[in-house]
Model the fold of this input.
Amino acid sequence: MSLIKNFPFTLPLPEPLKVLEDEKNLTLVNVGNATAKSFLIAEIMTHSRFNNVFWASTEEKADSLNLSAQLFFGDNIIFIPEKVSIAIFYELKRRIANKEKTLFLFEDFEAVSSQKFPSPKVIESAAITIKKGDTLKIYELFALLEARGYKSAEDSRVMPGEFIKRGDQLFIYPLNATVCYRVDLFDTKVESIESYPQGEIPAKKVVAADSLTIFSAEYDPDICEETFLHLITDDIHSCFIADDLDNDICPSGDFYKIKFTTFPDENSKFFHLNFFSVLPFYTIPDFVVDIKERMRREFEVVVMTKKFKEIERIFKDNEVMFTEDLAETMPSTVKIIKAKKDQFLPHSFQNNDRKIIFLTDREIFQFRRSAARKKSISGMNFELMNSLKDGDFVVHIDHGIARYGGIIRREIQAGDIREFLRLDYLNNDRLFIPVESAEKVSKYVGDDNPRLTKLGGNEWQKLQKKLKKETEKIAKELLDLYAKRALAKGKKFAADDD
Done:
């Protein structure tokens, strides 16, 4: 499964997976960042029967999730675009039926879930089947193909959704296939059917077939009544992951579903996994001290780096044992993964309960930020801290309006004390924001006594969408007004007399 052979961490999760098996629903809390989620999904697929996992997130875009997921899934990742064409729909059906472990990422799940697709019955009724030994009336076949949205190829390279006849040979590339087909005719009788890759003529590599089924390239929208979720309903090998989806777009149905959330429903059974991001190290000694403390506490430590020589020198200078053998079982030894120069490095993650930490250059060498960048960040935080008093109203860009409850100091792990902003929300809910992430918090400006936001609800997201639409409406009205002003002709008046 993992792109990295023998990735040293493992997470069987027998109890949560049993709940998922019995109830078809599982809620996991505190799953951390995209890297931790990718690792967790890979482990779920490794320790369960699921071959297909569909990851829908509103927290991050599919392309950014893909970069982190590649570490564990390699090329076994399929994008589901915002607009799913019938060719992509056929490809999804094909990949879902395949037993290969595959991660599917949605560009926009809400947009995909609103689209309608043909049912298996409708697809079958519109399909054209050609068998070896059949008698074909070629022009009737062409008429059928054109009625189903197929087009005549313009040159010798036949593309998906095209067909062409050359002499006694018919070439066709069905949208439901990954190869082109050549049908050899003797007068009107089908003598042979062969497939070959990439629509090449002449074919370089052919595979004989007894029959060819051609699915329609288009359907009447009025007969398409099924949604994407029908593809995975009742499929014991598919699982849907709702990653912090708003309640109004989170799907329901008779399929396996895992919910990643920070704020679980108190009435549902959920499991705290306690995966967290890693704060950047600002000095080499800070990094070394943390590594040694982790090793003292018997953590498994893995470092992924493009700067192997620097890491090697740091560890040798500070007497930290390390190895490039990921299968090494020697205790108190850091495992190092050499990343390629052009390889994407994901964010780090840690799990203190499981005693594992995965580090990359992103957090190890963050102290190399420019002085101007560090100054702007610290200046922004300092200015905010000085302007806030206990009881002031603030706005968190992701969670809405809260009341500021001061700075709280907490011990994250032995000897590691961090400062957090305490934000109080509706119903006595609280959120603790690391001081170094205070850029998402700003002082509230508006009514003297605003209504606090309900933490974990979708009220704030709906308000943001409403404000965005209203802003776009005002912008459109202003553009129309400026356009009318630019086209308007004025009236010239005579100069004033005495």
Residues 368-380 have pLDDT under 50 and may be disordered. The radius of gyration is 30 Å. Residues 156 and 201 are 6 Å apart (CA to CA). The longest strand covers residues 400-413.
